[in-house]
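Ticket reopened. Same input as before:
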Amino acid sequence: MNNQEQQVKKAFEEKFGAAPRLFFSPGRINLIGEHVDYNDGFVMPAAIDKGVVFAVAPNNTSKLRVHSIDMKEDLEVELSDIKKKEGWPNYILGVVDQFQKRGLPLQGFDVVFGGNLPSGAGLSSSAAVECGLATALNTIFDLKLNRVAIAQLSQKAEHTFPGVNCGIMDQFANMMGEKDHVLLLDCTSLEYKALPLQIPGYVIMLINSKVSHSLASGEYNIRRRQCEEGLTILKQHYPQAKSFRDITPEQVKQVKEHLDADVYRRCLYVTEEITRTQAAASLLQQNKIQEFGQLMFATHEGLSKLYDVSCPELDFLVEQAHQHPGIIGSRLMGGGFGGCTINITKADEAESIAAAISDVYTSRFKHAPEVYIMQTGDGTYEMLSQL
Ligand code: GAF
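Engineering reply: fixed in the latest deploy. New output:
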C-alpha cells in the first residue's frame, strides 16, 4: 500500500472506527481533441497513475459523513436533504443527488478521500472525485451500474451541482482508461478503441503553468453556448448536417457573414479540431509521431487564436517548446485558462529541456512552473488486495 492509500485508510479508521473498502480514481491527460467532446467530436485521453483514493463504508444511519484530507474539512448531510453548497461538497452531493434522481437506493455512508493530483492543473480532479465516489457507492450498495453508466451519472452530477456543462471525456477516461493505452473515443456514440501508447524514446511531459484555471468561472459554459448557437445557424445552411462532424472548416468559412465574429471563430476551431483528431489517430497508429506532434502545435494555435482559452503563460510555454527540437508536439491541455501544457519530449533530453524552460518561464512570470513525466494507468478500481 502506498503512502496515499495508507493515509486515507488510517484517517478513515481514526474518524469512523470501522474498516473501509478502498478505491482508486485516476486523473487524466488528453493527447489531442480539445473542447470537442461536447461538440460530437473525437478525443484521445488516457487515465494516469495519479488520482484520488477513497475509503468508504456504510454507516447504518440516514446520513452521509465525508472528510476531505486535502481540504481538511468535514461534511455531514441527511440523505433526505441533498442540496447544492459552495466548493468541494458539490462534487460529492451532485453524485448522491444523481443516484437518488435515478431511483437507486442509497443508505447512510462514511467517506474519507484524498489525492495527489495537483489542483487546478487540468488533470480533472473533479471527474476523479465524482467517478471515484460513484464507483464506491455502486459497489458497496450493489447497485449494478456499468462503467459507462457511472461515467454518465458523474458527468450529469458535474452539470447539476458544480454547474460546469462539461462533455463526457474526463469521466469516460476515468472509468474506461487502460494502462499503456490512450482511448480514441467517439463522443457521439461512445464507441472507443484503446490504442497502445508506445512512443519509444519519448515521454509525455506536462508543464504546469501554475496559473489556476476555473472552468466554473463561466467561460467554459460560454464556449459551449457559442458552439450551440453556431451549430443552429450552420444547420440552416447545411440541412443535411446533424452535428459539427458533418461540417467542414471550408463550409464554416463559406457562411462567415451569417455568424457572429466570436461564434464564427469557435465553429472554425471545432470543425478543424474534429478533422485534426481523426488525422492524429491515424498517424498514431502508423507511428508517425513527428507528424502527430505537428498537429498538437496546430491544436494549440486554434485553442489560443480561435477558441480563446489560452493565456500568456501557456502561449509562452508552447513557444518555448517550439524552440526545442527535443519536443515534437506541445499544446495546452484540458479546459484552458491555465493549468498544463502537454509535451511529447525525447526521453533523454526531458530533464535538461524541463530545466531550461523552467528557467526562462520563471524569469518571465516570476513564479516557477512544475514539470511531471506522466505514466498512464487503469480506470477507477477497487483496491481489493488491500482488504
Ligand atoms: C474539461 C471538460 F471537463 C471536458 O469535458 C472537456 O471539454 C475539456 O475541458 C476540454 O476538452 O476538462
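The first strand starts at residue 21 and ends at 30. The chain has eleven helices and 13 strands. Please confirm and we'll close it.
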